[in-house]
Amino acid sequence: MTDARLHVAITPAPLDVGALQDLVARPGAGAILSFVGTVRDEKLGRRVLHIDYEAYESMAERVLRQIGTEMCVRWPECTAALVHRIGRVEIGAASIAIVVSTPHRAEGFEALRYGIEAVKRDLPVWKREHFEDGAVWVQEGS
Amino acid sequence: MRIEVLCFAAARDAIGAMRTEIDIEPGTTVGSALVALVTRYPALESLVPSLRVALNEEFVATSVSVPEGATLALLPPVSGG
How near does any CA of chain B get to the CA of A86, in Å? Predict the structure, then answer.
């Protein structure tokens, strides 16, 4: 698999999903699918003000690359981009984007689902939710 | 031998720093290194059952020996995405 089929990044910059869709576009692709995770304004009835994401950056980039490589092995015609944002992320803004292109939609949905579930399980990133009365580390995937 | 220990999220709060060092005997396992860390930082104790550990940026089991010059990382349950 060549690097041209996989793009990963951990970044403090706002995520540009359109740019990632352009990045994975291929003449042989009949489907481009995107998963975008965004910051919700409430948690169990409490108002969330914003979220801070902390990463073990060097390991997180390595794990993202491992997940993306596995996607490209399991779905050999898949081209993928996986980007996670760190630092303060406001309500409604994207914290993660996974974008894939495949010849047909079915393998695209499968690859995308595999990718986000692997991120939720293994990516060394933690979110700290800020409420009006304080902040807490989130201990479960959500 | 001295190894570097990195702590994230709740583990970082528990020791009050993102980075520390501990001296361990050659051949010490990850599990024994954790015990040594809890002795020095009792606030880590309640986190240990849920921690995952990485050695040189790879997840490892607690039975693995810590190699010389390793970086050990204490990783609370992840919540990215």
Answer: 9
